[in-house]
Amino acid sequence: MSDLSLSKTVEAAPPRQFDFDRALNTFGAWTLAILWALPLLYAIWTAFHPAAYEANFELFAPLTLENFTKAWSAAPFAQYFLNTTMLVTLILVAQFVLCTLAAYAFARFEFPGSNILFTLVLLQLLVMPDILIVENYKMIRNLGLIDTIVAIGLPYMASGFGIFLLRQTFKTIPRELDEAARVEGAGPLLVLWKVYVPLAIPTYLAYGLVSVSHHWNNFLWPLIITNSVETRPVTVGLSIFAAVDGGVEWSVINAATLMTSGPLLIAFLLFQRQFVQSFMRAGIK
Amino acid sequence: MTRRMQWIYAWLLLTPAMVMLFAFTHFPAITTIINSFFSTPRGRRPAKFVGLRNYEELMADPIFWKVLVNNLWYAMATIPASIGISLLMAIWVNDKLKGRSLVRMSFFAPTVLPLIAVANIWLFFYTPGFGLIDQIRMGVFGLPENSWLGQQETVLICMMVVTIWKEAGFFMIFYLAALQAIPPSYKEAADIEGASRWTFFWKITWPLLMPTTLFVSINAVINSFRLVDHIFTMTGGGPDNASSLLLFYIYEVAFKYWQTSYAATLTVVMLALLSIIAIGQFFFMDRRVHYR
């Protein structure tokens, strides 16, 4: 957008005039940004300082990593991290496979019932598995999968959002590419693998980031379905750790909090641009 | 490929995803409705048909009404607030601004953090006497300490603040994408006409952003019923259910008291509410979306 004071208005504004509007906007943006960053900055402050400085902000307070080592040894976080990593990988792979196949069918095949089925897919955007905890618990119990990592992932593997996103992407790919490959004798699955998937890589990346961060952060369903150290993801582990009444210091809890969000936070800081663009791409409909 | 072959191929491609989708979304949604008409099976006593008894219980349950009212207030406050703030953020970040990427980072960071983890940080902010909010109040204004999460009047507002803080940066991204899609020539034309920033916003930007607003507000509605993680850490629904929301109550009924049929009945209410709001929003906004 072009700057107001630089535009070619007939009554030319005096050059280099103090732009009050702009100054006000910059001030507002920064105030809000500081306010928004405050909780995180605060957590970083307490996590890296001894407990005595929890509410005592001295610039030259001694730094320490003790809170992290305390938190790490107080609960089996290594196991929790392993569980979460396995969980998000499992969900991501399953989502990519299932959604790719379904999206391909919706984007490039004509068959009876396609509209009804697609509406049913979109319905999942409104009625998410997150809400259907009671019946999904019964379903998992009937399958005999209570307290397994697979069970945490199962309800999310066929994602309506993923199918929709990939279908939109596949539809933008010119049919000529598709037909050229078929003339050379490639079957539909080979065409999907050689033509559609490579051209949709930005969408996969975007969807992958959204999916990983969503399932890394998920809490309620894993809380319900797991009850042992071997299956618990970090979010559930953290809530159990922090809920131990009284005994745990704030600085240690905040260190654990940072630890559990750490991998995502570091990835976000490193790939900030890609992250924001991915979320943007995932949102454009 | 013959037509019939195409059909078979398409169905084969769809089968894995559709089976999973039916198993964990459509089928449970239907059994939820069915189970709301049955009693909870206990031990040797199987579930038996009870007609509308669960619904009668629901109507007479004061906690349900309290939680429902909480959730409606919660939705009515967090949806417009997070939409308004996210739009403001997007406009600021889209503008030429000193330190733009830092500002954007600060707005977006809460989105990638687990809600259950940030709830710990906020819990400390609200701690009476010792927490950051009380320290500022007591230190700067000399006011007495206040139990923010311990009072019925303030606890829900405290939860709303956390939600808005968590959501706004996420919605900002969608507005940012939409703002960048507006051709710069519109702005140039408006400048030549001498339109103010304010006029330009209300006459050009806001109408063009309507589809995004629709998308974001539907997301916000769903989130206002779906996101309850912070309640677990911060209040456990208390005091006296003042900060409990519908999904949290469903969790308590189902997995603390094991009254699964009553939980199913509550879920039916939730599904009905979501559908009504989504459909209503769609029709209400749809008229404006096409009015360009």
UniProtKB/TrEMBL annotation, chain A:
<comment type="similarity">
    <text>Belongs to the binding-protein-dependent transport system permease family.</text>
</comment>
<feature type="domain" description="ABC transmembrane type-1">
    <location>
        <begin position="81"/>
        <end position="271"/>
    </location>
</feature>
<feature type="transmembrane region" description="Helical">
    <location>
        <begin position="80"/>
        <end position="107"/>
    </location>
</feature>
<dbReference type="Pfam" id="PF00528">
    <property type="entry name" value="BPD_transp_1"/>
</dbReference>
<feature type="transmembrane region" description="Helical">
    <location>
        <begin position="186"/>
        <end position="207"/>
    </location>
</feature>
<feature type="transmembrane region" description="Helical">
    <location>
        <begin position="145"/>
        <end position="166"/>
    </location>
</feature>
<keyword id="KW-1133">Transmembrane helix</keyword>
<keyword id="KW-0813">Transport</keyword>
<keyword id="KW-0812">Transmembrane</keyword>
<feature type="transmembrane region" description="Helical">
    <location>
        <begin position="113"/>
        <end position="133"/>
    </location>
</feature>
<dbReference type="GO" id="GO:0005886">
    <property type="term" value="C:plasma membrane"/>
</dbReference>
<keyword id="KW-1003">Cell membrane</keyword>
<dbReference type="InterPro" id="IPR035906">
    <property type="entry name" value="MetI-like_sf"/>
</dbReference>
<keyword id="KW-0472">Membrane</keyword>
<feature type="transmembrane region" description="Helical">
    <location>
        <begin position="250"/>
        <end position="271"/>
    </location>
</feature>
<dbReference type="InterPro" id="IPR000515">
    <property type="entry name" value="MetI-like"/>
</dbReference>
<feature type="transmembrane region" description="Helical">
    <location>
        <begin position="27"/>
        <end position="48"/>
    </location>
</feature>
<protein>
    <submittedName>
        <fullName>Carbohydrate ABC transporter membrane protein 2, CUT1 family</fullName>
    </submittedName>
</protein>
<dbReference type="GO" id="GO:0055085">
    <property type="term" value="P:transmembrane transport"/>
</dbReference>
Automatic annotation (TrEMBL), chain B:
<keyword id="KW-0472">Membrane</keyword>
<dbReference type="InterPro" id="IPR000515">
    <property type="entry name" value="MetI-like"/>
</dbReference>
<feature type="transmembrane region" description="Helical">
    <location>
        <begin position="72"/>
        <end position="93"/>
    </location>
</feature>
<feature type="transmembrane region" description="Helical">
    <location>
        <begin position="200"/>
        <end position="222"/>
    </location>
</feature>
<feature type="domain" description="ABC transmembrane type-1">
    <location>
        <begin position="68"/>
        <end position="278"/>
    </location>
</feature>
<feature type="transmembrane region" description="Helical">
    <location>
        <begin position="262"/>
        <end position="284"/>
    </location>
</feature>
<dbReference type="GO" id="GO:0055085">
    <property type="term" value="P:transmembrane transport"/>
</dbReference>
<keyword id="KW-1003">Cell membrane</keyword>
<comment type="similarity">
    <text>Belongs to the binding-protein-dependent transport system permease family.</text>
</comment>
<feature type="transmembrane region" description="Helical">
    <location>
        <begin position="154"/>
        <end position="179"/>
    </location>
</feature>
<keyword id="KW-0812">Transmembrane</keyword>
<dbReference type="InterPro" id="IPR051393">
    <property type="entry name" value="ABC_transporter_permease"/>
</dbReference>
<dbReference type="Pfam" id="PF00528">
    <property type="entry name" value="BPD_transp_1"/>
</dbReference>
<feature type="transmembrane region" description="Helical">
    <location>
        <begin position="105"/>
        <end position="125"/>
    </location>
</feature>
<protein>
    <submittedName>
        <fullName>Carbohydrate ABC transporter membrane protein 1, CUT1 family</fullName>
    </submittedName>
</protein>
<dbReference type="GO" id="GO:0005886">
    <property type="term" value="C:plasma membrane"/>
</dbReference>
<keyword id="KW-0813">Transport</keyword>
<dbReference type="InterPro" id="IPR035906">
    <property type="entry name" value="MetI-like_sf"/>
</dbReference>
<keyword id="KW-1133">Transmembrane helix</keyword>
<feature type="transmembrane region" description="Helical">
    <location>
        <begin position="7"/>
        <end position="34"/>
    </location>
</feature>
